[in-house]
Amino acid sequence: MTQAFDAAAQQSLLETRAEAALELAGRLGADACEVGASVDQGVGISVREGDVETVELSRDQGIAVTVYVGSRKGSASSSDAGEASIRAVVEKALAIACHTGEDPASGLADAGLMARELPDLDVHHPWDLTTEQAIELALACEAAGRGMAGIRSSDGASLSSGEGVRVYANSHGFLGSQRGSRHSLSCMLIAEDEGGMQRDYDYTSARHPRDLMAPEAVGESAARRTLRRLGARRPATGRLPVLFDPTVAGGLVGHLMSAIAGGALYRQASFLCDRLGEPLFPEWFSLGEKPMERGAMASSPFDNDGVQTRDNVFVDRGRLASYMLSAYSARRLGLQTTGNAGGARNLRITAPLASREALLARMGRGVLVTELMGQGVNAVTGDYSRGAAGFWVEDGEIRHPVEEFTIAGNLEGMFKGLAGVGDDLDTRGSIHTGSWLVDEMMVAGG
Known about the structure:
Elements: H1 7-27, E1 32-48, E2 51-69, E3 72-78, H2 83-97, H3 131-146, E4 151-170, E5 175-193, E6 196-206, H4 215-227, E7 238-244, H5 246-259, H6 262-266, E8 286-289, E9 312-316, E10 319-320, H7 327-333, E11 347-350, E12 353-354, H8 356-363, E13 366-373, E14 383-394, E15 397-410, H9 411-416, E16 418-422, E17 431-432, E18 436-444
Parallel strand pairs: 7-13, 11-17, 12-16
Antiparallel strand pairs: 1-2, 1-4, 2-3, 4-5, 5-6, 7-18, 8-9, 8-11, 9-10, 13-14, 14-15, 15-18, 16-18
Helix pairs in contact: 1-2, 3-4
């Protein structure tokens, strides 16, 4: 498929080069330094209407160096992690540091916070797959979807498989590295009736290839999702309950995490500034992260500052319990890092879960949203307005598909108005959640 990828050898090589960059930065006058290096290799296959469209074999590498001279910071990077580029990158970072302003918050995370527990988190599972086998799987996925009655054509199926190594080291003496893999298969199909054409897709994604759905199952699921959208119309306008399908409910979690991220907070660009300890969700709802969960999509024993990751609770029984902070953003806010340089890892919800049927019954009359469009979210005010598609619900039952409407509200009001979470968990990404039932939003249709 591609040239052999020896992850252990690549890991050792990157560690050696990271240490060389640290040593060189110290000799050239840096007071402190941190280095990130990575190498990734993979294959991407796309097919359409039974023909192969693209076969992409990739191999990417890079190194990034940040130096600190007093409270001045300079960063430089290169797509070449070879020995020859290390000196150029370090010298460039030092030159930049000479021209930057002083920033008392800059610098490495405290040495005492560096990760000491570096277990194997079971996230590296390469797929021994030839290019021909990858093409066969993508074609089988598409064929299964195209074979469903009512499907008009295909927008393609894609398979990707990759593995890589990342290394982080700093002048505290910390050196951490991790190997990882990620595989996915997706299919997008088109259906048509007298009312027009509809398009939808489905996908599977996992660290280990054995955890992927069968190609035929992905294609057939994509076909069912596409066919159910035929005959869509605009919904009535009014204030109605909205049920967010798990595939879009994760986005609401993402908006929350963006609002409690340190960068947004110290810039005063979040509607959740200075809100720690205040009620934000119903008392039955909690949200946290589990970065050391074995085999999960975002597991890591250390963050991008080298700080030991830990289980964090961001929402505790409805109250905002913690922000999401790196060493830098924590200093800007006068707080302590939460080990979240680079973001949250493996977000998990603790709440009483209800079936989809129970949530629909509780809704009574409203809309089930399965697709969102546009970027209408204001992080400063929390105002939320998105184009949507999904299904009309009447008497607790799905009646017909709907499209070309807008749902609007405010994130704080939506969080406080959370009426239920479903047991239909979507576990394909780093955010695991089921459906979210929000008690009331403005739905603007026909």
